[in-house]
Amino acid sequence: MKILATYNIKGGVGKTAAAVNLAYLAAREGARTLVVDLDPQGASTFYFRIKAKRKGGKQLIQGKRNIHAFIRGTDYEGLDLLRARFSFRNMDLQLSDFSKPARRLARIIKPLAKDYDLIFLDCPPSISLVSESVFVAADTLLVPTIPTTLSVRTLQQLGKHLHGGGHKKLQVRPFFSMVDRRKSLHRQICEQPGTKSHTFMEAHIPYASVVEQMGIRRAPLATYARSTPAARAFEALWDEIKEG
Amino acid sequence: MAPKPNLPVAYEIKSETDLQRVLKRLAECFPLERSPASVQKRVCLDTFDWRLHEGGARLTASTREQETFLRLEVNGGRIECPLHGPALPAFAWDLPAGRLHDLITPLIDVRCLLQLAHLEVREQALRILNSDQKTVVRLTVERTSVTMPEEEDRPLKSVHPMLRLSPVTGYKRATRAVMDFLESELKLVRTRPDPMVRALAAIGRSPGDRRARFTFELDPAMRCDAALRTIHRTLLDTMRLNEDGVRQNLDSEFLHEFRVAVRRTRAALAQVRGVYPRDVVAHFKVEFKWLGSVTGPVRDLDVYLFMMDDYRAELPEALGNELTPLHKHLRRHHRSEHLQLARALESERYQALLRDWQQFLDKADECDPECCPNAARPLAEVASKRIWRTFRGVINQGRAITAETPAEALHRLRIECKKLRYLMEFFRSIHDPKQIGRLIRVLKGLQVNLGDFNDLEVQQGSLERFAIEMSEEGEAPVRCLMAMGRLVDHLYERQKTERTRFSRCFTRFSTSANEKRFRRLFKRRSSRL
Does the distance separating the beta carbons of A66 and B6 come in below 8 Å? Predict the structure, then answer.
């Protein structure tokens, strides 16, 4: 089982769109895939037309209920979702009750290894105990980054934090997201990101209304706009991720 | 603990009219969304003995947008993998690297994938939705037509339509409601969800229908001649079953099973004495010996071809790569030997052997007790006595072997053990399965040691023979001969180790506890009866 997390300290950068679309592509290829919606806002849960719950986060963290009971099948074969709970907003506090809080999430997910080939962790923005748990649990951190100076700077901060925090095994794979080719700054940063510590993936996810329409369609992009540049960009991104 | 997997449920529907009625009623009672139907041609693949099916897997090949895909369905999941070109894989090593390859390889091992049937599947996906338009139950209408692979020109045979229900994780209540509706309201009856098995049943195939059988259902009180005929008939069926695969050289297992059946036929003829008339035994012993010998060279070459990877691994990497000329030599000889084997199977001698043997086995009349003293005796009596005697022979021969005894004595003991094993397996069903199973396992331990010792010696001799043949045929590079020489040294060393292990293995077999177990099962029984 491989665990991929879509993460950024900043919000609104396309983490959920990436998690939902990449997970869909993985499942379409036959991988048994699970999306874990860790964000109390429950955006990926919403995209999959599943109702987010208010309570239950504590039971999940404390292991009082079988993790399988939190999982719902999506509309797509081989793609399941561990739906969000509004109480995930208190996850930091709940994790801190444990002696090794950063390892807790990895332990909770472990029993799923025989059921899934791939797990996507859709993370909330922020840097906290939840994100520390994600850094421990995940094999790869997919970091959607808007091509702006501040976003690239945030990525560098994340890199330094991970390096100093002993997460050296964690593979960090940033990619440009919400790229608006009309903006010269976006074009310029995509060509020269100005950071030596990270290599951006080749595929860029464009800023496109079809991606925003996911909120109306409540479905992955490839199901309703398969031949659009944005859908193709996600396919290229997924191919690149698979290549490692 | 993980919950039970969401296994699909299937309902067979008797006619197209019934199917339309079911769909209409479903649409009236549930929010139903239908996707357009798609037609797909699929080829069902499995080994001759259905190894994929037995391992809970289903493999099909289909073509989509001019690309051929393999689809493996296993453990409730599905893996698809594109093929590079239209040719279907024949062996595990022809499969593209990846999960599909890794899952199939241990299941099929060295067997080849055969085309079991060609299907034309018309599928329509239906989804039952909740108030968020979210799928809560998946249904699939499946209309399948089927033909045998070699009869693709014939009209397709239709299978009854099927409605498959696939639960969606976390929506148990909705699944239950739909299932109740289908079963209570519409009176549909569940069927096997495996469309491949249903389709194959339509052309008269069923899982395991071509499996070689080496187990025999016998009655301890039955006449010995009737029992022996049952054994021989089953073995003859196995030969006939595998004959075509041997002729076509589809994979090495056809010949292996064919030879096992021949060997056992010979063992039963020779070991269970006084049951058939002497002249019959004498004639068929000679003929089956001939059949064993004409099938031997190809089997030997099959084994050496499989051994090539092990041989390479046994040598330093650079030297291992020098074995390529040997590999080529084996392959070339395999081709010519197989031609000879195929000719032998076409020969009048072979045809007459099988025909006469079948006639003899089918003869209803019982063997004359005058010339066949054991024919009318109860099976248990004869079988137990024979097993006990052979066991005593093994014990006596084994005890006489010391570190100084020539290798020939170990070979004789190996053959004696083989006879004992065959006898125990022939008559397994008339003894307590747990007890005889345990004793067979104990015997196997000794057989492995003796078998390895013998194989290692035979291999050394064969490698020397191959080296001479290669030199004579002018295809023996010096480095290849050097590598083969090193290999012979390795094999010799390993053989010495097996020799030193013998006394430990024999002691483990001949403990007084085991002897008591053999005595209890075979000796007392034979004296009691």
Answer: no
